[in-house]
């Protein structure tokens, strides 16, 4: 599903990421932990194909779906259109995806007419509606209050169970990683490398 053989990623004179190799199959969720500034987002951007200036190779089946820290929604489009226009899903399928995340009845709302939690649900519904082979989640629950974060975590747990994707979750939270991931690893050192975690 996804195969990474990264030799090095530099920003100018600084080697940020060192040799990193791993593969990911459908049904697997890899959680990547690591301190702030270590290179998690940089690694995710390389895997997503958003950054091509690195030494090495990445191969994936298809364009991945990405959920960023902040929901990146189209402000002048309705909730339903945010899904159909971006993913190519039919209105019926987009409607079903909204229902799946508890947004039934809010199809015609604009993002600004949704609460932050609802916007995040919409972003997640959109990611899964694209029916991606690979789903990349970059700290999707950061800066949410604990109740909302728990709510989103449960929702994501359920969606990952019900949809067969390969997923990578970047997170600061070991608790989140333990709950969502089938494999865990930590990014550490300079240049940073990926060390598998057990337990
Ligand atoms: N465009 C850039 N130019 C130069 N340096 C950069 C650039 N983007 C990131 N960096 C540096 O690369 C390192 C890794 O950044 P990155 O954003 O990947 O870290 P992160 O682990 O995702 O951090 P956080 O958890 O705080 O989001 C940091 O030291 C950062 O300052």
Automatic annotation (TrEMBL):
Residues 1-197 form the ABC transporter domain. Pfam families: ABC_tran. It comes from the Bacteria. One of its GO terms (molecular function) is ATP hydrolysis activity. InterPro entries: AAA+_ATPase, ABC_transporter-like_ATP-bd, ABC_transporter-like_CS, ABC_transporter_ATP-bind, P-loop_NTPase. Keywords: ATP-binding, Nucleotide-binding, Transport. PANTHER family: ALIPHATIC SULFONATES IMPORT ATP-BINDING PROTEIN SSUB 2, TAURINE IMPORT ATP-BINDING PROTEIN-RELATED. Belongs to the ABC transporter superfamily. This is ATP-binding cassette domain-containing protein. It comes from Halovulum marinum.
């Amino acid at each position: 599903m996804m195969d990474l053989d990264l030799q090095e990623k530099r920003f100018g004179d600084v080697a940020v990421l060192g040799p990193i190799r791993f593969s990911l199959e459908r049904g697997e969720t890899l959680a990547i932990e690591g301190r702030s500034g270590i290179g998690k987002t940089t690694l995710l951007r390389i895997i997503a194909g958003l950054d091509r200036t690195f030494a090495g190779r990445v191969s994936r089946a298809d364009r991945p779906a990405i959920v960023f820290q902040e929901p990146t929604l189209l402000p002048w489009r309705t909730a339903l259109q945010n899904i159909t226009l971006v993913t190519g899903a039919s209105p019926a399928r987009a409607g079903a995806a909204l229902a799946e995340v508890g947004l039934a009845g809010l199809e015609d709302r604009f993002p600004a007419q949704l609460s932050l939690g609802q916007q995040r649900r919409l972003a997640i519904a959109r990611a899964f509606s694209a029916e991606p082979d690979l789903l990349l989640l970059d700290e999707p629950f950061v800066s949410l209050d604990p109740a909302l974060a728990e709510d989103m975590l449960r929702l994501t747990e359920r969606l990952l169970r019900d949809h067969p994707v390969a997923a990578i979750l970047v997170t600061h939270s070991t608790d989140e990683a333990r709950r969502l991931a089938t494999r865990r690893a930590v990014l550490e050192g300079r240049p940073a490398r990926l060390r598998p975690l057990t337990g």
